[in-house]
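Me: Here is a favour to ask of a fellow structure person. Could you put it straight underneath, so I can go through it closely?

Assistant:
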Amino acid sequence: MVKSSSSIRRDVEKVLADHGIASPPVPVEYIARALGVTVKYEPFSGELAGMLITADGTNVIGVNSSHHFNRQRFTIAHELGHLILHHREMERVHIDRSLVHRRDNISGLAIDPKEIEANRFAAELLMPYSMLIADIEGVNDVEDVDEISLLAKRYLVSALAMTNRITNLLHLHKHW
């Protein structure tokens, strides 16, 4: 069963509250460490973005060190999503070869619900609903490229990730 966006938002809000995080950028590596997860950076070959390894009560997130810093943050957030959302049903090793900030043909078809949920969790963790809504309300034009770039820098995400997140929020809040 696919988790709803509101359910994932509640999971993220709990993580943020549990760790006293009230403003961006969300320190995803700190959250990982606080949850007992070791984060290791290594250059991976090909498109491998990251992996979550769980064994004998130990959790390790491997992150492709050759990727951009913002992509690395997304990878950590995505793997935390798997850990938090799917911990009971997880394989011993979870590898993600193509974490994306945008919808593509595969994710749009909802072929792998766990990947879609982990992507939603990552977007929600990196750009939390309540924080982003507060920031957007102070913006004159949320579709302005410069405004999006400023928000992306504030949240340490790509402009594309911020654009997608704002677009999704605009569908929920049509009064902007």
Observations:
- The chain has eight helices and four strands.
